[in-house]
Structures are given as C-alpha cells and as structure tokens.
Design a protein that fits this description.
The protein is α+β, with helices and mostly antiparallel strands. It folds into 2 domains: 261 residues, 2-methylcitrate dehydratase PrpD (Orthogonal Bundle), CATH 1.10.4100.10; 125 residues, 2-methylcitrate dehydratase PrpD (60s Ribosomal Protein L30, Chain: A). Helices cover 51% and strands 7% of the residues. The protein is built from 19 helices and 4 strands. Strands 2-1-3-4 form a 4-stranded mixed beta sheet. The longest helix has 24 residues. This is MmgE/PrpD family protein. InterPro entries: MmgE/PrpD_sf, MmgE/PrpD_sf_1, MmgE/PrpD_sf_2, MmgE_PrpD, MmgE_PrpD_C, MmgE_PrpD_N. It holds the Pfam family MmgE_PrpD_C.
Length: 405
C-alpha cells in the first residue's frame, strides 16, 4: 500500500510548473523577502542570529506577521518554504513542490487540528520543508519520503505561542528541520515513510491519500496588506470601507462596538486586552481599534506604544465579540460589525473577503505599496531579484552572528 509520504514524494518529484504556478512563486518570493527585510531591526533578528540560515530567515520573516497565508489550511506557506529553498540554493520549482506538499498536508490535517491549538505552519511546515529542500537537492522520490519522516520529530508548534517571540521562532525551527532532514536523507539516513501516516493519525488528521490534481497550491495564497494576523485583515478592511463610505468617522464618537463573527475566524485571536505590540497582532478588539484610529494600519499601529494609547485602550474595552458556531477556516462566512455612537445612532458594516484574499487578489499598486511600507530601500532591493540572488540579499541583511545578552 502506498503511504502518504510516498504519494506526496511522487507528486513533488514529477511536478512541473505552469505559467500560473511560476507567477505565484515569483510573487511569494518577493512578498517573503519584503516581510523579512522589514524586520531587520526587530529584536527577533538578534535572537535568531545564532540559528542556521533557514531558521533565521523564517523566524525574522514571520515575526511581523506580514507574510502570506494559505487560507483553507490557515498556514503561512511561503515563509517556511522560501526560507528552506533558499538555504540550499533552490529555485521556483522546489518552492512550488514544497508549497504544494504543505497545502496538501494541511488539508489532510484539517480544521480540527488547527482548532485544537496546533500551529499548522509548523506541523505541516517541517515535512513540507523537507520536500522543498530535498527537491532543490535533487533527491529521489524514496529519499523525499524518507526526509519527510525524518522531519517529523520537529513537526510541532502550538498557538499558545501567539503574541510572543515563540511564534516566529517555532516557524524558524520548522524550516530548519526540513533542511536538516533533507540533508540527512541525501547522506543516506533511513526512516520509515509510514511514520507520516501514524503522525497524521496521532494529530487528528482526516487520513487518506492527498489530492494530486489542480495547481501547485490549491486555493492560492492570500497577501496581507496589514502587518497582523490574517484573521484581523477582514475586520480591519470592513471598518476602513465603512469609514470611506461615510466620508469619515470620528473614533471619539464610538461608544460601543459589537463584532459578530464565525468562531473559526477567532481561533488565533487570543488577546482580548492586548498590552504589547505582539499581542495586538492577535486581537479582534484591537483590529477594530486600529482601523478606527489609524488611517491605514501599518507597522506603527502594532507597537507597545500604539496599543497603550489611552484612546486605543478605551476602544479596545468598548468592543464586544459575539461568536457564531462553526466554520472551517479564517474566512468562513462574514464578519458583521455594529458601531453604536455617542449620539445614540448606529452604523453597521459586513464583509466576507478582504483585499488581498485569493478572491480579491492584490493589485500591482497594493503590492507596490506594501513593499514600500516595508522600507524605503526595499523596492530597489527587490528590483530584478531572483531565486539565485535572494540568498545573498538575505545573508547581507540578516547575517548570522553571536547572540548578545
């Protein structure tokens, strides 16, 4: 009987990209590099300086929560897979093979796995990174399946880390685990591919062989326009569109806010009363707050100082979240937001798909604006970049070094 690892390995080894796949890979490379370069001065860049390339780049690339998302699996595909591919000198095909495996593994793990508190970017990410790195290294299908099994001991990560350094660091650990596993398989290490089937069962996966049809990344990837959890993109967009429709909205006049949303869309939003910039990236009340206070929520909106603004804390306390049952991804259904103003009037808005989602793909202008927001020098740094030159760019911007206490 063919195992899941063998099936995925055969798919990845035989996969050949089409033009749409290659366009997705190019966008993913640029988006991941921009998010990593934007975090050059973040304290995680110092903390991660002692880590190997894949771990360092993935941790820094994820810490601002500005990297892309595969919505159906709630996983940050590119930051793991791009980092793993670049660490071994790979290209677009290696990225797409790894991204495809990560999406298919995430689908097999299913929403119950994510809703139980696992960080699927790490659980699906480690074995998928092994395929990505292994494809770049030219491994055989048997070696790819072996590498996936060798990555499993490091395929962990939990949502309790959200709002701390642990979230981005565990993403880095997953990327490095994949590279390590691929190199071990290349060197002749052995492992039983059936381990992946057992692991999937133990983690509550749905089982069965993965779907080998469709594009490299079924469902596509969502691009974030604001540097925070993807579950916050929709309420931020809803408030911003309401403000535009009204021709402005004075946040001082907002007395109470009621957000009604499917409970699935709240899964990663652990902080109802955030006090730090990292916590504010995982908070429904703060999504509403920053959308009301800030013209366009950006990096400055998600700092310790921003979240502790007196008016921000007032508005956070004024938000009530009502969770409706069900859902199986972060964009299930729609978000409904009712604002009660101090004069007794009420305004209301709802939204299903935020800008940047696969069904509302980012425009070239939105992508350009995102890259420019990541740093004044980043558009020039990304101009003409490719898979061969990206490694040197990251090594220069995020060099390895000793951890300073």
């Amino acid at each position: 009987m063919v195992t899941i690892a063998e099936s995925l390995a055969q798919w990845a080894h035989g996969y050949r990209p089409d033009a749409a796949d290659l366009a997705l890979a190019e966008r993913s490379l640029l988006d991941t590099l921009a998010a990593a370069l934007a975090a050059r001065e973040h304290d995680v860049a110092t903390l991660a300086s002692v880590l190997p390339d894949a771990a360092r780049w993935a941790a820094v690339g994820h810490v601002l929560d500005f990297d892309d998302v595969q919505v159906e699996t709630s996983s940050h595909v590119s930051v793991v897979i791009v980092s793993s591919v670049l660490a071994v000198g790979g290209d677009a095909r290696a990225y797409l093979a790894g991204a495809g495996v990560m999406t298919r593994l995430g689908t097999l793990l299913g929403w119950p796995h994510y809703s139980a508190g696992w960080h699927i970017t790490c659980t699906a990410g480690a074995p998928a990174a092994a395929v990505a790195a292994g494809t770049a290294l030219g491994l055989t299908p048997h070696q790819l399946a072996t590498a996936m099994a060798l990555a499993l001991p490091a395929a962990g990560g939990v949502q309790a880390a959200f709002g701390t350094h642990g979230k981005s660091l565990q993403v880095g650990f997953a990327a490095e685990a994949g590279v390590r596993a691929a190199r071990l398989a290349q060197a002749g290490a052995t492992a039983d591919p059936r381990a992946l089937d057992q692991w999937l069962t133990l983690l509550g996966g749905v089982g069965g062989l993965p779907d080998s049809g469709g594009p490299a990344v079924p469902g596509g990837l969502a691009i974030k326009l604001h540097p925070c959890c993807y579950a916050m993109q929709r309420p931020i967009a809803a408030i911003r569109e309401l403000r535009e429709a009204l021709g402005g909205l004075d946040p001082a006049e907002v007395a109470r806010v009621v957000v009604t949303t499917p409970e699935a869309g709240m899964q990663p939003l652990r902080h109802d009363r955030p006090r730090t910039g990292l916590e504010s990236k995982f908070s429904m009340p703060y999504a509403v707050t920053t959308a009301l206070l800030d013209e366009f929520p950006d990096f400055d909106s998600f700092t310790d100082a921003a979240v502790n603004r007196p008016e921000a804390q007032r508005l956070v306390a004024a938000v009530e979240t009502v969770r409706t049952p069900g859902g199986d991804d972060l964009l299930t259904g729609e978000v409904d937001i009712r604002l009660e103003l101090s004069d007794g009037t009420t305004v209301r808005t709802s939204l299903a798909q935020p800008p940047g989602s696969p069904l509302r793909a980012p425009t070239p202008a939105e992508l350009d604006a995102k890259f420019a927001a990541c740093g004044a020098d980043i558009p020039a740094l990304l101009a003409g970049i490719n898979w061969a030159s990206a490694r040197a760019l990251l090594n220069k911007a995020l060099p390895a070094g000793p951890l300073e206490s």
